[in-house]
Amino acid sequence: MGATRRLVIIGAGPVGVVAALDAARRGYEVTLVEAADEVDRNPRAATFHPSTLEMVARLGFFDAFVAAGLVARYFDFWDKPTMTRTARFDHQVLADDTPHPFVVQCEQHKLVEMGLQRMAGEDTFDVHLGTVVTAIDQRADGVTVSAEGPDGPVVFRGDFVLGCDGGRSTVRKAIDVEFEGFTWPERFIVLTSLQDMQAALDCSFRNYIADPDEWANLFKVAGEGGQPRWRAVFPTGVDQEDDDALSDAECARRLGALVPDAGLDALIHRKTYNVHQRVAASFREGRVFLAGDAAHVNNPIGGLGLNCGIHDAIELLDTLDELGPGPLDDHLLDRYERRRRSLIIEFVQKQTIANKKRLEASTDEERRAKRDELLATTEDPERHREFLLRSSLLASVRASKQIA
Ligand SMILES: Cc1cc2nc3c(=O)[nH]c(=O)nc-3n(C[C@H](O)[C@H](O)[C@H](O)COP(=O)(O)OP(=O)(O)OC[C@H]3O[C@@H](n4cnc5c(N)ncnc54)[C@H](O)[C@@H]3O)c2cc1C
Question: Residues lining ligand 1, CB < 6 A?
Answer without folding.
Answer: 10-16, 33-36, 40, 43-47, 108, 132-133, 164-166, 170, 190, 273, 292-293, 300, 303-307, 309
